Amino acid sequence: MYQAPRGTQDKLPEDQAYWKYVEDTAAEVAALYHYSRLDTPVFEDSGLFIRGVGEGTDIVEKEMYTFNDLGGSSVTLRPEGTAPVCRAYVEHGMSNLPQPVKLYYIMSIFRYERPQAGRMRQFHQFGFEALGESSALLDAEVIDMSCCFYKKLGLKDLTLLVNNIGCPECRPAYLKTLRDYYRDHLGEMCEDCKNRFEKNVLRLLDCKKPNCKVLADNAPKSIEHLCDECSAHFAALTKRLDQLKLDYVIDHRLVRGLDYYTKTVFEIQPLIEGAQSTIGGGGRYDKLIEELGGKPTEGVGFATGLERVILNLKRAGIEPPKSDKPDVFVIWCGENTLDMAGHITSALRENGVPVATVYSPRSMKAQMRQANTFGSRYVIIIGESEAENKNYTFKDMQNNTQETLTEEELLKRLS
């Protein structure tokens, strides 16, 4: 018995309505804020992620699916969406377009993690990136757009966390202060954090282990070590968030898991707790495109895991909207009715009406039972009498009404 690989899942028919609802809402929100869709390859040159995401990150060190192709080149299944978008921005000369360039994507992501609820090895993200603008007002708009997405889906009771982690000018001094603080507590840290102390001390603030979390709570705060530019940027951001009437919490432990972030970082979390509780997040990355070989270009973006979004929709009891098109089941009984059933089925489909039927003789009772299983709103019954009179028995299952209609009347009603 073959099964889906560990950490992957099938999108079953009964869940497709959720996926369509979420993806349609994502496209709707992207259009509201004037973002255009971009699709990038499933795999990229491994160097794109090693250089862009950062060698000291968990993603690069532990989670990437990296292999040599038949030509001997090292390629990686994309573990995040921002670096490929930035690569495409540089490769296709988008710096020559009016700035900022606003792009969104819906893509599959691959990370070798321990599977659990809301955390898979292959999952899907909706994300958007705004490139070529440094203003904190754009950061606020990206955060506002993120909140708008969840609001349109019907998700409530979400917490917005924000922080500023500085820039290359002020962060080195802060990292030294942070390292000095943690040096006195090395014996209290988990093994992962002991390694991070040497490679990426900022990530110590993000550890969820109880002892490390207590240390992080008492650690020096990045917003107290910002340069004038970063302080002004953060002040402008919070002022605009206040104007937008977005409730937020300043969380000095918030650093995000990728090395390319500068200044603004943010996350959105539901009330549930746990390592996988974050439903989405993002931030500013003003040096990433330059790091990837482009000219200096500012950027800010956001991404949310669609599996986690659907999980939260189900937990909240939010069901996707039903299709507004009538769902019809055609029942035929008797050999003389088969051609008539085939004719009306084709005619309805040509008029954009979804239709289901059976393909071999079955009893009326069995066909009606199947129509109920499908949840069909309407049933068209063709028996010997209908075939003789060239009309159709039309049954509304929801209102429990029944009438006899000609083909013209039937098509007009259902179209």
Outline the structure in words:
- It is a single chain.
- With 415 residues, the chain is an alpha+beta fold.
- It has 2 domains: 13-167 and 250-315, Bira Bifunctional Protein, Domain 2 (BirA Bifunctional Protein, domain 2); 328-414, Rossmann fold (3-Layer(aba) Sandwich).
- 38% of the residues lie in helices and 20% in strands.
- The protein contains 15 helices and 16 strands.
- The strands form 3 sheets. An 8-stranded mixed beta sheet has the order 1-5-6-11-10-9-7-8, with helices on both faces. Strands 13-12-14-15-16 form a 5-stranded mixed beta sheet, sandwiched between helices. A 3-stranded antiparallel beta sheet has the order 2-4-3.
- Strand 15 and strand 16 form a beta hairpin.
- Helix 1 (16-32) packs antiparallel against helix 5 and helix 5 runs parallel beside helix 9 (228-243).
- The longest helix is centred in the middle third of the chain and has 18 residues, at 136-153.
- The protein is elongated.
